[in-house]
Fold each of these.
Amino acid sequence: MYTNAELQEILETLRSGAESEVVEFKEAKSTFSKNDIGEYFSALANEANLQNQPNAWLVFGIRNQDRAVVGSNAFADGDSLQRLKKEIADQVNNRITFKEIYAPIIEGKRVVMFEIPAAPRGMPLFWKGQYFGRDHESLVPLNIEELERIRSQARISRFEREIALDRITYQELEKRLNLDAIFRALDIPRPDGKVAIVQRLVSERLLADNSTVENLAITNMGAMLFAYDLHSFDQLRRKSVRVIVYEGKNKLRTIKEVNFAEGYAAHFAEMVRYINDQLPQYEEIGEALRTTERMYPPIAVRELFANMLIHQDYYQGGTNPMVEIYRDRVEFTNNGRPLIDTMRFLDEPPQSRNEDLASFMRRIGLCEERGSGIDKVVNEVENAHLPAPKFESKTSHTIATLYGYKPLRQFTQSERISACYLHACLRYIVHGEKLTNQSLRSRFLPDNVDSTTCWRIIKATLAEGLIKDFDPENTARKLAAYIPHWG
């Protein structure tokens, strides 16, 4: 947040330069189309990305011809500005919206300054499905070359191939990396001789290409996956996994906290086992046996944990990848916004900032085949009749949440809609089927939900625009079927 004095200084700087692809002045004395604002949001965010600027500005109350302050009464009440932020988020991918909206008094007149974040690396921003850009001062569709320039940023990142530690001996390598764990993961015998071992590690990109037995360089991927201790690599200290268990439904009281400093692949099974052991369990009594069942499906836990490790933005500072266990939920948090819209996790081809690492972890069986992980999470959650998982894109990180069981009557309206939408996605993508009233009733077992309640949920999900009629011409409610809005 900027102070009024800082905003005045920023505005003077903006007014002193020519209107550019990342600055737009509008008189907008009273009204301005929200659709036009959305188009400018998309255009300015994309141009800021292309010009390596952290943000762009849309300014109301400045006459473009001479940069005179004329003032603006647009969105004169604070509530309308907050509603505008939400409306922009609703129509922009990944619910990205203004960093902030300011209304300072400049030269005795009200000016509205919209601070627009640059489109995230690898993710061009659209408005209502269309990508916009700028041609000098004109608003235009983003051209194919610029669209690809932004998208290709996701493929440029090569954090995994950068050097974590170089100029070390073979003896030092054995102290830093768990070589036995590497060959167990690859399911091959450990090669005979140092030269053969080094050559294999180079071919797996765990060592740099120019490594020799006398002069070795460990890549970030080698360290991230197989280090004995990530804290021994300066730039990877904040990449170790934290698991925190809280007493209740908030962070007020911590029961325990563990930091796993070992490489992800070398210690993956132990970390997943530890997380599962901290999660609630319950006893189920059958005809002859009493069995202990887990509240959260182990496959869902494993997949979300793997995704947290694979998709984090390693260049971004801040918190460690973190699993937080509350009484009613478990959250998986990693640095970096997702590269695709959280509402499209099930159907869009996955994009990873760290494709080498992702490919290696898939190859050694630590995560699902490409594109099937989130499908399995949602499927396992539905089979356990839990509330739908939640995927959130925050300012600088991503959160995936699994919720413990509760009856449908305790679901909020948004939780009911989310469950209905993901159910429609799962049936459409995985089973090649449609959402129906009966299928939704089955999804909410063992609550014994009646068809009237399911119709209400379907109607609410339709109103949100998340699903649509498969056959709009059909008038028989019993035959009604629905598919995701993008189907």
Note: The chain has a mean pLDDT of 89.
Amino acid sequence: MLRTILWFIYFILYLVFASPFQLYCHHKVKKGKRAQVQPMIETVVFNWASRLLRLAGGTVEVIGKENIPDETAVFVSNHQSDFDIPVVLTQVGKPHALMAKQSLAKVPGIHGWMKLLQCVFLDREDESQAVRALMDGTKLVKAGNSITIFPEGTRSKGGPVKEFKGGAFRIATSAKVPIVPVTIEGTYHMLEERGRIHPGHVRVTIHKPIPTAGMSRQEVRELPERVRAQIISAMTEQKSESL
């Protein structure tokens, strides 16, 4: 319990400490000078996320970092835990945009930094808003910004990987950028399993990019299940190794 209390204290205090930097970055972005503050945005977010993992007692093993492309990409990951977010922000290239649930837009402190990362907020219960979010995501990627999407739409909390929604794949195919499947295994041990912060080991597998330019309609239709199967395969391999 003490670890959980200290973790939340740090969570809040860092956001308070970083608030002047956030205001400065927002000012520069409004002036059209994002390039001047982008390194600061990435540094602040990376430090915050990496320390959250360390304070929780999390260790992270990454396989396939060489598969992160230099070009713009849509990273597609399974979603076990709220800790998937700091894992993605620290282990899958530079901190970049996420497609996040609308409720996060109401969290003070976090919302401002997510806006600076150009995150897209999605409300799956509001069909018209969901369509706008997908359009915003597509524009963001076409402008040269990578994004990570959790197409299950909700956390599995260590259970079976849920069905993948098609939005992530429509963004990638519309923008004609590669999809990079990402398997995250073990984050649910750090929170959801016990209902409190707990040390755990996380294994991240970054798979080879899947080009989407020139895909046939049939290939596009099969893409969600193809990526889901690839993500699950890395989990199966890990469990086999542990036996």
Note: The chain has a mean pLDDT of 92.
